[in-house]
Amino acid sequence: MNLDELTPEELADGFMIPARMTPEQKRRADQELAAIRQKRFTEQSEQDILYGRMLQLKIHIEDYIKQDTFDPNKDFSYFLRSYIDIQHKKKVDIASELDIHQTKLSQLLSGRREPSEDIFIRLEFHSNQFISARDWFRLSMKQQEHAIMTNASLRNKEKKHVKGHLNLNASIR
Amino acid sequence: MYLLNKGSDPPVPVEAIIEPVAISDLKKLTKKDFYFVWKDFLETELWKLRTTESREILGVMSLTYYPLEYRIEINLIASRRDNTGSDKQYDRVAGCLIGWACRLAVKEYAHLAGISLKPKTRLVKHYQEKYGMLSGGQQLYLDGRPLYQLIETYIDHEP
Questions:
Q1: Domain limits for position A91
Q2: B81, B126, B137 ranked by CB distance to A33: nearest
Q3: d(CA B147, CA B114)
Q4: Partners of A98 in beta bridges
């Protein structure tokens, strides 16, 4: 079907067709929009800002989970730190809200302690179910998966415990 | 993210995915199927939409980032020719692509994120009604709550 055969509603359903503008018209239109948005920025509430920043974090977590590669700089503690920083709260307050000892929170933030199921679930409720326990869990699993596959000393140590193995035909592997 | 398959009665949701356009996709983005010369948009960021069940591209979108203004401009969106008009099989193609642009903007610019477009005058009212677009002078835009709402409606919502 040609575009001129479509109704405006049908076009809006499947297309975004730009108006023709000269570079000068475009420059003025962009300036006009920038001024309107600048005013809106100043009118944003603390709640709006928090929502936008939390949504950004949620998207970063979702995309990182889907990513095939592991980034050692983006472990569970990295995202937990971001979650806390966005709220501009003290660690002692967050620890209290999550009902965990401050030392435990510090260990989670430094990566010296692996998070457990209760932490994933408490974080979900703390975010008012905005970031799911499943996503926190998957972040942690990504880290563990990487460790299992790359920790050479652990692999060598565990290999010695295996007293037998399957004898599969190498030609079809 | 899902499209609605109107080929079924009642329409059924079908899982969809949006991915970057690869060089190998360009030969499929013909003017015959997608109305425009997409090779002319190679300097912009190109995204394609398809169902997870098929490799066939159903929609394409061109974006340009304006980091100093914390916004992404939608240059062009087109559906595949055989999925247009009242007989089209899949609904929500443009909505999902616009929602994706909103998501990219939040990923980049957080609470300052915005998207904009400069549609033909006769379509302005329809984008405002269908997607809640706001008037920004000579162009339409979304930011703040209406932008988050569009992400919820077209990207995060599960049928």
A1: 46-148
A2: B137
A3: 7
A4: none
For the stretch B46-104, pLDDT in tens is 999 999 999 999 999 999 999 999 999 999 999 999 999 888 899 999 999 999 999 99
Query: Quick check: B115 and B25 in contact, CB under 8 A?
Result: no
Contact B50, B57 (CB under 8 A): yes
Q: Is B138 exposed, middle or buried (0-12, 13-18, 19+ CB in 10 A)?
A: middle
CA gyration radius, chain A? 25
Looking at residue B70, the DSSP 8-state letter turns out to be T
**CB of A122 within 8 Å of any CB in chain B?**
no
Residue pair A133/A119 in contact by the 8 Å Cβ criterion: no
Residue with tokens 């979702």: A62
CATH classification at residue B19: 3.40.630.30
Of B74, B111, B137, the CB nearest to A36: B137
What's A163's DSSP letter? Answer: -
Does residue A15 lie in a domain region? no
Asked whether the beta carbons of A122 and A98 are under 8 A apart, the reply is yes
Domain count, chain B: 1
The sheet with strand B71-79 has its strands ordered as B90-91, B2-5, B12-20, B45-51, B59-66, B71-79, B114-117, B139-143, B134-136
Please give the Cα distance from B151 to B146 (Å, whole number): 9
Q: For residue B114, which residues of chain A lie inside 8 Å, CB to CB? A: 37
Complex ipTM over 0.90: yes
Q: Residue B68 corresponds to which amino acid?
A: L
pLDDT, tens digit (0-9, with 9 covering 90-100), for A41-91: 999 999 999 999 999 999 999 999 999 889 988 999 999 999 999 999 999
Q: How many domains does chain A have?
A: 1
Q: Which of residues 44-63 of A touch B (CB under 8 A)?
A: 44, 48-53, 55-56, 59-60, 63
CA distance to partner chain B, nearest, from residue A57 (Å): 8
